Automatic annotation (TrEMBL):
Entry coiled-coil feature ranges: none
Active site: D89 (proton acceptor), D271 (nucleophile)
Keywords in alphabetical order: Glycosyltransferase, Metal-binding, Queuosine biosynthesis, Transferase, tRNA processing, Zinc
Origin species: Brotonthovivens ammoniilytica
Name of the protein in its database record: Queuine tRNA-ribosyltransferase
Function: Catalyzes the base-exchange of a guanine (G) residue with the queuine precursor 7-aminomethyl-7-deazaguanine (PreQ1) at position 34 (anticodon wobble position) in tRNAs with GU(N) anticodons (tRNA-Asp, -Asn, -His and -Tyr). Catalysis occurs through a double-displacement mechanism. The nucleophile active site attacks the C1' of nucleotide 34 to detach the guanine base from the RNA, forming a covalent enzyme-RNA intermediate. The proton acceptor active site deprotonates the incoming PreQ1, allowing a nucleophilic attack on the C1' of the ribose to form the product.
Pfam families: TGT (PF01702)
Length: 376
């Protein structure tokens, strides 16, 4: 169950009750594609850096180690030792971005595994079955993610098929949640709005999926090549046509600035690989912009990554030491940067929630964006 605690303009401060606990929104989901955050981050670390939801990937876990094995071992929560909510994305984006040669048909998609080349078929029912085996808290509907630059005719046909697939996802999830051997009989389903950068296709699809009364609604197919301005425009025209009393999830986004702007447009769920990917390359986020710890100017810098930060890296280690670790290709350097970045994102979400509660979100956003653009 989702309830709005406070609104400040379009910005929503809410909470979502799930079978694995209640989460506070807006929130950032920490991405653990193959049931682990890249950068040697353990689930015990996630508790220390304020993680509310961990996100794993249906396609990757289906390919390796296999969703049936995970079900046999008690489900994803037990497997990775994490008792808070998990969202699994449907595999749709990976099928279309990783699989190379593929055939899209009404029943689903035929493609080859990127790991060993074996033939795989995935459609709405298969995606729901895999996610049910994983026993995640929130399952995403199976969709096609058309290119942002695809022609209008292709996008319209794709969105129409995605809508038909959503109906099948909903029916299959209801069936699976009623089975005796299903681990999580309270699995939630989020639908995904598509339509590339065509306003009218996006709005029409938003209206159609809103009628299905799902547990939440996502916007997919953004941050995949279009400009930030185009993405914000799509949010401006589309979000008002999604149910305000359900979570609104912007998939795969993004930078701190992207998140701040999207919250202002009514979005309250986010995920992105940026904090972990950038951290593994020595790029760390601060309230005064991003630092590249490989830069020589940090060679003798005994300050933490950010003064006052309470993350596990900043409480103990200096920029100089972390830079040394990165240069020496020691895994600890990567790990400390990833922990800092995820802590930074999760702390920013705390600040966002507080600002909305105090009805000063617009001021907070502008101040935060200004500070981050200044550098230090």
């Amino acid at each position: 169950m989702y309830r709005i605690i406070k609104k400040d303009g379009l910005a929503k401060r809410g909470e979502l009750q799930t079978v694995h606990g209640t989460v506070q929104t807006p929130l950032f989901m920490n991405v653990g594609t193959a049931a682990a955050i890249k950068g040697a981050v353990a689930t015990t670390d996630l508790l220390k850096i304020k993680t509310q939801i961990e996100l794993s990937n249906t396609y990757h876990l289906h390919v390796r180690p296999g969703d049936k094995l995970i079900k046999e071992l008690g489900g994803l929560h037990k497997f990775m030792v994490w008792d808070k909510p998990i969202l699994t994305d449907s595999g749709g984006f990976q099928v279309f971005s990783l699989a190379g040669l593929r055939k899209i048909k009404e029943e689903g998609v035929y493609f080859n595994s990127h790991v060993d080349g074996r033939k795989i078929f995935m459609g709405p029912e298969e995606s729901m079955q895999i996610q049910s085996n994983l026993a995640s808290t929130i399952a995403m509907a199976f969709d096609e993610c058309p290119s942002a630059v695809a022609d209008r005719g292709y996008v319209q046909n794709s969105v129409d098929r995605t809508f038909r697939w959503l109906g099948r996802c909903k029916d299959e999830m209801q069936r699976l949640n009623g089975l005796e051997d299903t681990i999580n009989k309270h699995q939630m389903l989020f639908g995904i709005n598509q339509g590339a950068i065509y306003d009218d296709i996006r709005v029409d699809h938003a209206k159609r999926i809103s009628e299905l009364d799902l547990d939440g609604y996502a916007l997919g197919g953004l941050a995949v090549g279009e400009s930030h301005e185009e993405m914000y425009h799509i949010l401006d025209v589309t979000v008002p046509h999604l149910p305000v009393d359900k979570p609104t999830y912007l998939m795969g986004v993004g930078t701190p600035a992207n998140i701040l702007e999207a919250v202002d447009r009514g979005v309250d769920f986010f995920d992105c690989v940026y904090p972990s990917r950038n951290g593994r390359h020595g790029h760390v986020y601060t309230n005064y912009g991003k630092l590249n710890l490989f830069n020589q100017k940090y060679e003798k810098d005994m300050r933490p990554i950010e003064e006052g930060c309470q993350c596990p890296a900043c409480r103990t280690y200096s920029r100089a030491y972390i830079r040394h670790l990165l240069k020496a290709k020691e895994m600890l350097g990567m790990r400390l940067c990833v922990l800092h970045n995820l802590y930074f994102y999760n702390t920013m979400m705390e600040e966002i929630r507080e600002a909305i509660e105090q009805e000063r979100y617009r001021t907070y956003k502008e101040e935060k964006l200004y500070r981050m653009s200044q550098g230090k």
